[in-house]
Every structure is written in C-alpha cells, then in structure tokens.
C-alpha cells in the first residue's frame, strides 16, 4: 500500500503548473489586451530565451538562485542597457502575471531588481502623416460599414454613432493637442463655431481657449451631417439631453469615460501595428507646431502649459532639430570663379 502522504505528493506533482503552459496563458492575456503582434512576438522571444536557459519544467521549481543565474548571464552578454532592461521587464511582467493569476504561490517577480537607467531627454514619439491618414481611413471605413446597416438593429445604429464620435474625438486630440480628459469632458457650449474657438477645461481647473483648425472645423461639420442620418430614438435622446459632446451611454448626465477612449486607442494600435495612446496625439500636435516654427510661447498657451519653460523642457529635442534644419539652410559655398 502507498502511504497517504506519498499519494498527496504525487497528486501535487501531477497538478504543478508548467512554465510552458504559463507562457501560453500569458500570451492569451497579451492578445486580449490587443497588444500588437510585433510586441507579443518580442515578449515571447524573450521568454523563450529565458526558458531555454533555466531548463526547468515546473513553475514552482523556480528560485532566487535560478533567476539570479539568468540575470547574471544577461549582464555578461554585453547587451545594450535598453535591451537588458526590456528583458528584465518582460520577465518581471510574466512572473507578476503568474502570481496574480495564482499559477504559482511565490512572488518570484520580487527577485528581479529594476535597472535604474540614467534619465535623458529623448525625442517624443509622434505619428507620421502616413499614420494619421491611415487612422482616418480606417475610421471612415468603419463608418461606411455601419452606415450601410443603419436601421437594421440597435447594435449597428450604436456602432455607427460610436465611429462618427470616435472620428471627431481623434480630430480634437490631433488638432488641439488637448489631454484625454479634456477631450472626453468637452461640453457642447464649449464649441463656438461663430468665434472659431474651443474652450478646454485644462489641468488645475483652468480654462484654455484654442482656435479651431480648418481641418477640425471640417470634422465638426461632417459630424453634424453624419449624425442627421441616425434615426435611433434612444441614441438621439441621450445625445440631445446631454450637455456633453460625448455623453456616457449609461448616463446622459455624465461624459464619456477615459477608459472608453483608452479602449479606442488599443483598437487603433492594432491598425498601425504599434502601441498608441491619447497623449501621443498631444505630442504629435506639439511636434508638428514646432516643425512649423510656431512661437514657443504661443504653443505653450495652446497646450495649456503654465509656463513656456515647461514646453521647452519637454520638447527640447524637437526644437533643436528644427533649429538645426533651419540654420543649415543658411550655409552656402560660393562657386569658384
């Protein structure tokens, strides 16, 4: 007869979570968050490299010594600091996922110390003109698809409204440089077509008046025209009764949640194949303004910075790059006579 203790141990061994299966679950989680295929592929490559090195099957067989051996190995490979940091971050994120989802009982991620990197002012990432065009083309495509199905069901009516709303939100982010919360909390009365201005409630409950760019004016007029095609009484009631440009579906007295905007950004990230977020439109607005030689004080006012020095500190690289481009044009070599 096999002792009960041995039977219990055999049962426990039989239910141990393998590293391979944990990575499979982690991959599914990344996909559910709609990370780009490129990002997920990079994560899995880093984890495969780690898995091959540790050569352990069960997740619970990990230990401080095993993880430290791998981290010391990475350190000895001469990787760039950014690559080294990325691999540690991926492993930390994976092990955190495993603990939070109860795939293991130990906080293995605590054994991975973060790398402190020297801070430096790097150029802000921005959207290219091609990417901006691609985003609007995609949104226009979604509008067209659901416009063709208008009136067939509440579902398609609401999808149509969501996409014409999304197009205007993206336009407001892009052509005003406002923050995410400033966009979703915009009130109808804050848009003054007659004076060609938008009133934004910025940080610190300060109001900021921004001129309406001609392209944004076109988007505003297009939104009004497209909303006329919507005949769904329930949706129109929420829109009409709300003081907000973008009301909450559940409560017309509240504005659209920033979480909904975040979800939209995740979807648009899939369109471009890279991670984008609402603040990226703000950086894009500011960077393009700098490239167009806009006065820094004016730009600072447009993006509601309390002081131009803040704008200068954030966009130092963009300003320097533009200045270099302008100054290099002054160089001329006289032809020999």
From TrEMBL:
Keywords: DNA integration, DNA recombination, DNA-binding. The keyword DNA-binding applies. It comes from the Bacteria. One of its GO terms (biological process) is DNA recombination. InterPro entries: CB (IPR044068), DNA_brk_join_enz (IPR011010), Integrase-like_cat_sf (IPR013762), Integrase_catalytic (IPR002104), Integrase_recombinase_N (IPR010998), Integrase_SAM-like_N (IPR004107), Tyrosine_recombinase_XerCD (IPR050090). GO terms for molecular function: DNA binding. Site-specific tyrosine recombinase, which acts by catalyzing the cutting and rejoining of the recombining DNA molecules. Belongs to the 'phage' integrase family. PANTHER family: INTEGRASE_RECOMBINASE PROTEIN MJ0367-RELATED, PHAGE INTEGRASE-RELATED. This is Tyrosine-type recombinase/integrase.
């Amino acid at each position: 007869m096999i002792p009960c203790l041995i039977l219990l141990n055999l049962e426990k061994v039989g239910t141990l979570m393998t590293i391979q299966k944990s990575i499979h679950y982690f991959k599914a989680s990344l996909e559910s968050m709609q990370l780009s295929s490129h990002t997920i592929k990079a994560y899995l490559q880093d984890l495969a490299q780690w898995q091959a090195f540790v050569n352990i099957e069960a997740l619970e067989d990990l230990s401080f010594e095993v993880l430290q051996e791998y981290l010391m190995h990475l350190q000895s490979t001469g990787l760039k600091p950014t690559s080294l940091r990325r691999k540690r971050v991926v492993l930390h994120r994976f092990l955190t996922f495993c603990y939070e989802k109860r795939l293991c009982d130990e906080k293995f991620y605590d054994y991975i110390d973060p790398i402190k990197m020297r801070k430096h002012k790097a150029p802000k990432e921005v959207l290219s003109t091609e990417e901006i065009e691609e985003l609007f083309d995609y949104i226009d495509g979604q509008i067209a698809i659901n416009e063709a199905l208008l009136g067939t069901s509440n579902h398609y009516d609401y999808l149509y409204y969501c996409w014409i709303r999304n197009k205007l939100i993206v336009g407001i982010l892009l052509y005003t440089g406002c923050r995410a919360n400033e966009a979703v909390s915009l009130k109808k009365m804050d848009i003054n077509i007659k004076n060609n201005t938008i009133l934004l409630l910025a940080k610190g409950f300060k109001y900021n008046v921004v001129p309406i760019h001609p392209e944004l004016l076109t988007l505003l007029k297009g939104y009004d025209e497209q909303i006329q095609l919507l005949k769904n009484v329930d949706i129109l009631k929420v829109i009409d009764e709300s003081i907000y440009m973008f009301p909450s579906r559940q409560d017309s007295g509240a504005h659209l949640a920033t979480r909904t905007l975040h979800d939209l950004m995740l979807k648009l990230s899939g369109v471009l194949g890279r991670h984008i977020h609402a603040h990226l439109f703000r950086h894009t607005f500011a960077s393009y303004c700098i490239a167009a030689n806009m006065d820094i004080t004016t730009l600072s006012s447009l993006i509601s910075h309390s002081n131009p020095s803040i704008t200068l500190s954030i966009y130092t690289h963009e300003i320097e790059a533009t200045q270099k481009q302008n100054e290099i044009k002054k160089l001329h070599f006289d032809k020999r006579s």
